Amino acid sequence: MKKEEMGLEEALDNLEQIVEVLEEGKMTLEESLDLYEKGMKLVKLCNARLESAQRRIECLTGELPPDLS
Amino acid sequence: MTQIFTVTDLNQRIADRLENDPRLHDLWARGEVSNYLHHRSGHRYFTLKDQGSSISCVLFKGSALSLNFELKDGTNVMVFGDVAVYRPQGRVQLVARGIKQDEGLGFRHLQMEALKKKLAGEGLFAQERKRALPLYPERIGIVTSPQGAALQDVLRTIGTYPARIILSPAQVQGEGAEESIASAILALRGRADVIIVCRGGGSTEDLWCFNSEIVARAIFACDVPVISAVGHETDVTIADYVADMRAATPTAAAKMAVPDVEEIKEGLRSTKVRIMRALWTNLERKEERLEYLKHNVSAKRMYSLARDARQRLDILCQSLDGAQAEKMQSLKSRLELAKGRLTAVGPRATLLRGYAIARSEKGLILQAQDARPGEEIELILGRGRLRCRVLECRDDSEGAL
Question: Contacts for B145-149 with beta carbons within 8 Å, 24 or more apart?
Fold first, then answer.
């Protein structure tokens, strides 16, 4: 799955895993820097998701009432 | 010999029989009001019915004065009166002298209890069938009236949570409401991660459609968890029993459906701190290891590892904001220190010949100007190190040697 398509849940799950692995601290410096970068990217991604949230309302039977769109 | 009656005589005879029966006088009859008519004359006509039968009732103007509630269709009542025959039509009727509201279970309630029993028997309410709600739904289906306040409440509560909201409009009261709700629910199959079926408060009559079998079965047939929120706290409908979750109000339903955006943000902030701290701890551990290894491992290699890490940190720093950058800066200086120690490992052989490396907090001291009088510096010798205080900084251009 591409990063752009990653859902909030998946991103948060990945983030949780990264933090756990990082906190275990059983990797090389190189790996931990990699994970750090990945983690920060995910934090950014999640924040972006939450910030850019435009409410998208669809109606199954045609038009939405004008006051909802 | 068989007697031949005129119709009038026959009705008279029936009337005599019934009206003279003392057990058909001063009686109470319980049922639901329907076909209610408040006649111009002031008399009230209605049919009293239960599940299996009905009887005509009349409440004459004079007796109607004692009514202390509004009589209307659907009301469960206790009627006090006498049985009489309306002779022109041979119709048996109950002449009411008093009516009070029936606080007990009416016919419809009995019907609902029966349905509840049946559905429970089929396992529609089974606890083990209830599904857990998704933590972060991306598609939220809502079954309700587009005009209702319930929808507004739900939308307001979902707030800025990033999800697609799919409204499946339904008529939530009146004739045809049951079918409308059921098909609106079924229309959401395969289109949502969680479904909210809701309606604002109303009379028991208004909410009754949520007690229907067709709505119950539609909820049961859903492929994703359903949250029901019908009426207020005290109104519990069959839909509530079948749903995976019951919310007291539409607002409460929305709260169950989505996580709090602010909470997620707060979580992200603390995750960020954890990641930083973990990296920090990792670096510290590496440093300790470096310390341990430096006597055994090629200094050159370790040095280059440290340099690489530093470069990475430089790059990272550029993408971080102020507070983080500061933290990273201190990580960097720690690395700098580690590097310093490594450089010390390199020329170990030289040191053993009597040279020393002078170092301050700022780094290596290569010339007198690198230190200040009074400053504490470190001298690294072939074996061990000295902590020293500078007495004077003299800049001899030719050098002492």
Answer: B145/B169, B145/B170, B145/B171, B145/B172, B145/B199, B146/A59, B146/A64, B146/A65, B146/A68, B147/A65, B148/B172, B148/B199, B148/B200, B149/B200
